[in-house]
Structures are given as C-alpha cells and as structure tokens.
Amino acid sequence: MAAVMMMEEIKEKANRLEIDPSSIDLDSIHLPPGEDCGIVSDDEDVYQEIAKSLKKYSKKYEAEDQDVSLLLSEQEREKRRMLKEDWDKWVSEWKRMHEEEKLQREELRDGEASDEEEEYEAKDIEVEEVIDVSEEVLHFE
C-alpha cells in the first residue's frame, strides 16, 4: 500500500523545514512525465482508502469552507457597517452645516424662512423697461 501524506503532516514537515506553506503555489508544481507519485494504478485497496478518506474528510473540509464563508460574510458585514457609519457621519455634518447657514439663507430670501418647500412661495415680478424709442415713417401706396 502506498504511503499517503495528510495535510497536517505536510504542514508539520514544512514548518520543520522553515517553509511557509501559504507561500507555495501548488498549481505551479508539475511532476515529470511517467511519475506515479507512489500510487500504483492496479492497487484497488489504495483507491478504496482514498475514497473512504474523501468521504471522511469532505465533511471536515465542507465545515471549514462554511466557516470561511461565515468569516467572509462577517467581514462583509463589518465593511457595510463602516460604510454606514461614514454615511451617517457625512449626513450629520451636512445637517450641522445646513443649520449654520440657515441665517444666511433667510437673509438672501428677504428674511423669510423657507427651508421647507411647502412653505416656500415663489413671486413672479414682471418689469417692463423701455430701452429705446425710435420713430420711423412708413409709406403705404
């Protein structure tokens, strides 16, 4: 039966060799052609052991995946909370500035407080101004 190394054993060996396992790109490792990596294709026992191990560890890794997913969800919630806090801070700053500028707005509106749109009354003022008067004689024939 071929020797199978579990992930924990790989991590322990990497630590003993002072190698950070997260720095290794496993996808970039290519074995030479013809290497069987210790798994003999005719050995049905090895395949059965691997199948059992897959069933056994798939539950464990699914749980780990769920934990990671929950962690990511928590990070996303934290990010949203921070964005909401920034928004609330901006709104409160705007309200403060709006209140500070209230007197200036009233002065511009001739002393009328018209912050509420329902209370605002528009006044149309028509002004006629004679700019130039010229007389022209028209002849009708």
TrEMBL record:
GO MF: RNA binding; translation initiation factor activity; translation initiation factor binding
Record field: compositional bias (Basic and acidic residues): 100-112
Domain of life: Eukaryota
Keyword ATP-binding: no
InterPro entries documented for this protein: EIF3B
Any single GO CC term annotated in Swiss-Prot or TrEMBL for this entry: eukaryotic translation initiation factor 3 complex
Keywords: Cytoplasm, Initiation factor, Protein biosynthesis, RNA-binding
Compositionally biased region (Acidic residues): 113-122
Region (Disordered): 100-122
Protein biosynthesis found in the keyword field: yes
Protein's recorded name: Uncharacterized protein
Organism whose genome encodes this protein: Lotus japonicus
Source organism phylogeny: Eukaryota, Viridiplantae, Streptophyta, Embryophyta, Tracheophyta
